[in-house]
TrEMBL record:
Protein name listed in UniProt: 2-hydroxyacyl-CoA dehydratase
Entry similarity comment: Belongs to the FldB/FldC dehydratase alpha/beta subunit family.
GO function terms (MF aspect): iron-sulfur cluster binding; metal ion binding
Species: Paracoccus lichenicola
Assigned keywords, A-Z: Iron, Iron-sulfur, Metal-binding
Signal peptide bounds: none
């Protein structure tokens, strides 16, 4: 096993067992662990309170007791959240915080409150209409309430100095993850989709300093890699706003002669694309970050006249030289399903081959889906869209 593989394997182990990592961190430091939910929660505020922000992941376990708490038409991620709460897996959390509010996520939070009445649960509901004059002051107000509640739960005072340090650490890690994405996009490195996902998912879980140390060593090793010519089909993966696609799905896609050159997944580019400003008032910077994120990588859960997902996606595909797109939509994800027709119109208008794959917690018939992916790849090759990269 190479040094690169050793580092990635260690981070993948954390990504596969985030709650186990949090328990070990808590035992080691005696600090508090705050569960946070996607997509726009400012984890830096938790770090500034001296606690570990743990972005709760979808669990691989079959949903059992949680079935009695949420309807089956809720997405797999929210049903998994509730099942984890109902089966005792959140026992190490000192609180659960969120700022996003799709209908399914709100339902899941209500079910968690019902199941775990002693766990502090706090929703600082950010408005989704980004252009309204009332939105920036409302975000600042909600951020202030979040700040005070975290101080109460963590039994500490969050200082501007601590917040600036947390912001700087997060920005440094995001920059290194973006550098790895850039190298992969350019064909300089050949990390798999599974490996790239592990790098980002571990960032959602680990202590920032510990994760940064691993990334620093990894980037130094990857910078020495040499690009190799490839005639594999270059694809962009799009979608999955809240949780990670199953690694076996990524493996299957790549087994069809595909290189995933770019994405706008939550556990990918969307998570690392936007830094928090480090100058000025750090509280104002956290509020500004909410708007900057949607400017950089628009999301269909937000309404903004000056930014739309399809335009971003078209520009991204031109920039990364992708031959086509696979859209991954979580089953029952209403914001994605309602917006998909706009994406499809853009794909057709620009002659971009694409495939829609609906994913779900219970898994996929991979061989059937593989046939569809192979058909997409064959069509791309026959159209002559592919190009060799060096």
């Amino acid at each position: 096993m190479t040094d690169i593989d050793k580092i990635i394997s260690s981070l993948a182990a954390v990504a596969e067992d985030p709650l186990g990592y949090a328990r070990a961190w808590k035992d080691r430091t005696q600090g508090k662990v705050i569960g946070i939910l996607p997509m726009n929660f400012p984890a830096e505020l938790v770090r500034a309170a001296g606690a570990l922000p743990l972005l709760i992941q979808e669990d691989d376990a079959a949903i059992t007791y949680g079935r009695s708490l949420l309807f089956e038409f809720y997405c797999g991620y929210t049903r998994s959240l509730v099942d984890q709460a109902a089966t005792g897996k959140f026992g190490g959390l000192d609180g659960l915080f969120l700022v996003d509010h799709c209908v399914a996520l709100l339902g899941a939070v209500d079910a968690i409150r019902f199941e775990l009445p002693d766990l502090p649960v706090y929703l600082a509901q950010y408005p989704a209409s980004m252009d309204e004059p009332a939105t920036p002051p409302m975000v600042r107000e909600r951020l202030g309430g979040l700040w005070r509640k975290l101080e109460q739960v963590c039994e500490t005072t969050i200082t501007p100095e601590a917040l600036r340090a947390a912001i700087a650490a997060s920005n440094a890690n995001r920059a290194m993850l973006r550098r790895i994405h850039d190298m992969r996009r350019a064909g300089q490195i050949a990390l798999s989709g599974r490996q790239m996902q592990a790098l980002v998912k571990s960032a959602m879980v680990m202590d920032a300093a510990e994760h940064g140390k691993a990334l620093t060593a990894l980037v130094a090793l990857l910078e020495g890699q040499q690009a190799e010519p490839s005639n594999r089909v270059r694809l962009h993966l799009s979608g999955h706003f809240c949780h990670a696609p199953k690694p076996e799905l990524l493996d299957m896609i790549e087994s069809c002669g595909v290189t995933i050159v770019d994405d706008d997944l939550f556990t990918g580019t969307r998570f690392v694309a936007t830094d928090i400003p480090e100058d000025g008032d750090p509280a104002e910077a956290l509020a500004r970050w909410y708007f900057d994120r949607n400017d950089n990588v628009p999301c269909s859960t937000r309404a903004q006249k000056s930014a739309d997902w399809e335009s971003y996606l078209a520009a991204s595909i031109r920039r990364n030289g992708a031959d086509g797109v696979i859209v991954l939509v979580a089953k029952f994800c209403e914001p994605h399903m309602l917006y998909y027709p706009e994406l499809r119109k853009m794909f057709h208008a620009n002659g971009i081959p694409h495939l829609l794959i609906e994913t779900e917690h219970e898994g996929l018939p991979l061989e059937m889906v593989k046939t569809r992916v192979e058909a997409l790849i064959e069509g791309i090759r026959q159209s002559g869209r592919t190009r060799e990269t060096a």
